[in-house]
Amino acid sequence: MTALLTIEDLVVSYPKKGFRAAPFRALKGVSLDIRPGETMGLVGESGSGKTTLGRAVLGLAPVESGSIRFDGREISGLSRRERRALSSDIQVVFQDPYSSLNPSMTIGSILSEPLSARGVSESDARGRVAELLDDVGLPSDAAQRRARDFSGGQRQRIAIARALALEPRLVVCDEPVSALDLTTQARVLDLFIEIQERTGVAYLFISHDLSVVRHVSHRVAVMYHGEIVEVGNGDQVTARPVHPYTQRLFMAAPVPHPRRQEVRRVERRRLIDAQRTPSETTSAAAL
Ligand SMILES: Nc1ncnc2c1ncn2[C@@H]1O[C@H](COP(=O)(O)OP(=O)(O)OP(=O)(O)O)[C@@H](O)[C@H]1O
């Protein structure tokens, strides 16, 4: 299938303060593609470059070289106006539902803002707002209330509704459930999946939480020090990681359920054995 988003050899460097200080290279030649309707999970430790990659796709990071193509068209280095035109295709949901919504605006205004900017009439926008609220499981009277009246989980539903208002084909989700409690996380994750099944939207789903990424992703990419060290389908990467960093990352992740703990123990044993030389394995087995 043709990719919706194709990133090739992407280098992003942040300028450093100070005379003659060399810029900091946050992405060191990243290549990745996302297909229509696919969720690409992006995991990696803090500082590995996940958010930078998401921001580069949104045109918010200083790209030094490489390319980002959306539907075959180069989108890095677009002017502001061209970027704005692209916002109906590429949207974002951020981590913090408290700072990403203006607390004093009504939900109706928050959701109709992107619609009016596209020239949608007031009455059509009202209808679309009602539809969007329904899509994310909020009552229609939410339109008259203000963002400050809603819980974190509800606010994240509103942020998702806002991202969906223009029917984008790709949403960059940057840690969209990290600020929520576990039960709310599960509900919001299911909402992401349900919306995708209905609309065919693709997600670049950034999270430091492996169980979250496993739950939503078709494929998973692992970042390490500004590079992607492994990409594969979720099961492959999580159950049979190839890169030593991915193996460490997955073995260190907490596994709350006793059955999963048992599976994890077996996986860990297998990995340790696989890393041993044949003679070490034989002698270990003999003990
Ligand atoms: N605006 C900036 N200016 C300078 N350096 C930056 C900037 N933004 C990020 N960095 C650096 O780039 C590297 C990658 O940061 P990034 O936020 O992309 O990582 P991350 O994997 O998303 O981390 P986290 O999971 O903690 O959000 C880090 O070393 C960070 O300090």
CATH topology of the largest domain: Rossmann fold
Q: How many beta-strand runs?
A: 10
CATH superfamily of the largest domain: P-loop containing nucleotide triphosphate hydrolases
What portion of the residues fall into strands of 2 or more residues? 15-25%
CATH class of the largest domain: Alpha Beta
Spatial extent as radius of gyration: 21 Å
Number of helices: 11
Judged by helices, strands and strand pairing, the structural class is alpha/beta
Protein name: ABC transporter ATP-binding protein
Keywords: ATP-binding, Nucleotide-binding, Transport
Family: Belongs to the ABC transporter superfamily.
InterPro entries: AAA+_ATPase, ABC_transp_ATP-bind, ABC_transporter-like_ATP-bd, ABC_transporter-like_CS, P-loop_NTPase
Would you write up a description of this structure?
With 287 residues, the chain is of the alpha/beta class. It has 2 domains: 1-89 and 168-231, P-loop containing nucleotide triphosphate hydrolases (Rossmann fold), CATH 3.40.50.300; 106-161, no CATH class. Helices cover 42% and strands 22% of the residues. The protein has 11 helices and 10 strands. The protein has helices at 50-57, 80-86, 107-117, 122-135, 152-164, 182-199, 210-216, 234-239, 244-252, 258-275, 278-286, and strands spanning 5-14, 24-34, 39-43, 63-70, 73-74, 90-93, 170-174, 202-206, 219-224, 227-233. The strands form 2 sheets. Strands 6-7-8-3-9-10 form a 6-stranded mixed β-sheet, sandwiched between helices. It has a 4-stranded antiparallel β-sheet with strand order 2-1-4-5, with helices on one face. Helix 3 crosses helix 4 and helix 5 packs parallel to helix 6. Residues 275-287 have low confidence and may be disordered.
